[in-house]
Amino acid sequence: MPGPGAYLIGEEEYNEVVDVLKSKHIPRYGSDDDPSFRQKVFTLEKEFAAAMGTQYSVAVNSGTSALMASLVALGIGHGDEVLVPGYTFIASISSIIAVGGTPVLVEVDESLTMDPSDMEKKISAKTKAVMPVHMLGMPCDMKSICGIAGRKKISIVEDCCQALGGTYGGKRLGSLGDMGAYSLNVYKVISAGDAGILVTNNKNLYERAFGFHDQGHLPYRKGVEIGNRSLIGINMRMNELTGAFALAQLRKLERILGLLREKKTRFKNAIAGAGLKGMHFRTVNDPGECHTLLTVIFESTELAERAASALGTKTLNKSGWHVYNNMEQMIAYRDIEGKQHIWKNMLPGTDDILSRSLNLSVGVVDGGIGSDFGITIVAGNDEIDRTAEKFIKLVRPVTG
Ligand SMILES: Cc1ncc(COP(=O)(O)O)c(C=O)c1O
Fold first, then answer.
1. Is the Cβ atom of 92 under 6 angstroms away from ligand 1?
2. Which one of 40, 188, 263, 268 is the catalytic residue?
3. Domains of the chain and CATH, by start
4. pTM for the whole thing?
5. CB atoms closer than 10 angstroms to residue 176
6. 196-200 and 56-60 as β-strands: parallel, antiparallel, unpaired?
7. What pLDDT, on a 0 to 100 scale, did the predictor assign at position 345?
8. 88 lines ligand 1 (CB under 6 A)
9. How wide is the angle at C-alpha 81 spanned by C-alphas 78 and 86, nearest 5°?
10. Closest-CA residue to 371 (of 115, 93, 135, 159)
C-alpha cells in the first residue's frame, strides 16, 4: 500500500483531472488567451512555491528529475564531489552520478539523517555541494549542516522527497538550502502517481533548473524560442493531467500533515507508555517532522532482529531499497577514471544503527523501507490503540 496522499484520493483529484480532459489541452504550455488552456502546471508551481515559502518552483516528472535539475542548476558536473548520506533512496546517489558528479557517502546518526560531524570530515577540495536527505519525514540537523556548508562555501540541495511539508525552525524543508527537491510518487506525503517539483529563492538557479527541465528554454516560453537558450537541457516536463492531480493533492497538504501528526502522536505515546526496556525512538531534530513513520532503535542487533521477527517485519539494514550496502549497482559502479566510490560496509556507524532499527508505518506503508507493521493515515483511535498494544505484546517478551 502507498503513502498518505494516495489514501485520500477523492472527488477533488477527479474534478481537476476531468477539467483538463474536457479541455483537451494536455501539454504544460499554452496561450494565456486560449480558454481551453487550464494552466494547471503553472498554478501548481505558483501554489507550491507559496506553500514552501520560496519564490520559485519548477514542476517536473519525478523526484529524481527534480534532484538532477537542481544539481545542474548549481553547476555540478565532472569531478565535483557531492556529500550524500548512505541511508537514502538510490535516486539521491544516482542523480549525482547522472549529472557527472561524484557521490561521497556520509554516515547517518540516530535521527537516521546525515551526521553533521561526519559530513564535515568528508569535505575535500573537490566538494561542491551537500545533499541532506530529510529521511522518513525527519528534518536533518539543518542548523549544523547549513553552518558547515556556509563556512566551507558549498551549496545545499535538500532532498525533501520523503518530507514534503515538513519544517525546520518553522521554515519549510526545501527552503533552507539553495535548492529543494520533492517527489510526488505513490509513497510520498502527496502523490500524483509519478512526478516531482523543485524550489529555490534564487532567480538564476531557477532559470537554470527550468532550462535543464526543458531543452534550455527560459521560464514560461510560449512557443519555440530560438536564440535565448543558455544551457543544454533535456525534457522533464510535467503535463496538465499530472499537474491537475498534483494541484488537488497539494491543496490537501495541511490536512494530511495534521492527520499524520495526530495519529503518530497517539501511536508513539501508547508505545512509550509501556516503558519497554532496551529500545528508544529515533532522534527528532525538529517537531516539524512529517510524522509519516515511527522508528524504534534497539540496544543491540540481536534484540532488533528478534523484535522484527515477532512483528513479521525486517531490521532496516535488511529492508532493501534505501541502504547503500544493498545497492549492488552502486557498489559495481566505477567512474570514468575507473575509481570506485561506494563499497560494502564503508559506513560502520550507519551499518550499526540500521541493524538495530525498525520502521513502523504511520502514513507510509512500504515493505521497501521495512514498514510492514503499523497504522495508516485512515486508522481510527481504536485501531491505533490496538496496533500499539499488539506491538507491546509482541516486543515485551523480547526486550523485557
Ligand atoms: C529520498 C528520496 N530521494 C529521491 C527519490 C526519487 O523520487 P522519484 O521516485 O519521484 O524519482 C525518492 C523516491 O522514492 C526518495 O525517497
1. yes
2. 188
3. 4-252 (3.40.640.10), 254-399 (3.90.1150.10)
4. 0.97
5. 22
6. antiparallel
7. 98
8. yes
9. 125
10. 135
pLDDT digits (tens, 9 = 90+) for 123-158: 999 999 999 999 999 999 999 999 999 999 999 999
Taking CA atoms only, the protein residue closest to ligand 1 atom 14 is 89
Q: Whole-angstrom Cα distance, residue 22 to residue 82?
A: 45
140 Cα distance to chain centroid: 11
- In 3-state terms the chain splits into helix, strand, coil percentages (rounded to 5) of 40, 15, 45
171: amino acid identity, one letter: K
Contact (CB, 8 A) for 356 and 314: no
Q: Is there a contact between 5 and 368 (Cβ–Cβ < 8 Å)?
A: no
- Residues contacting 348, CB < 8 A, separation 6+: none
Give the three cell numbers for residue 37: 488552456
Most ligand 1 atoms within 8 A of CB, residue of 71, 114, 161 to mutate: 161
Q: Are strands 179-183 and 196-200 parallel, antiparallel or unpaired?
A: antiparallel
DSSP string, 98-143: HTT-EEEEE-B-TTSSB-HHHHHHT--TTEEEE--B-GGGPPP-HH
Q: Is the pLDDT of residue 191 over 80?
A: yes
**Residue 196 CB–ligand 1 contact under 6 Å:** yes
**Could you give the count of Cα atoms lying within 13 Å of 117 in the half-sphere of its Cβ?**
3
Q: Tell whether the torsion through CA atoms of 78, 79, 84 and 85 is positive or negative.
A: positive
Model confidence pLDDT, tens digit, residues 83-121: 999 999 999 999 999 999 999 999 999 999 999 999 999
- The alpha carbon of 183 and the centre of ligand 1 are apart by a number of angstroms equal to 6
User: Catalytic annotation on 24?
Assistant: no
Sign of CA dihedral 168, 170, 171, 173: positive
Is the Cβ–Cβ distance between 95 and 67 less than 8 Å? yes
Distance of CA 390 to the CA centre of its chain: 30
Centre of ligand 1 to C-alpha 65, Å, is: 9
- Asked if residue 159 has its Cβ within 6 Å of ligand 1, the reply is yes
In angstroms, the CA 248 to CA 237 distance is: 19
- Distance from residue 237's CA to the centre of ligand 1 (Å): 17
The residues, ordered by sequence, that sit 6+ positions from 70 with a Cβ below 8 Å of its Cβ are 157, 178, 179, 180, 181, 198, 200, 205, 209
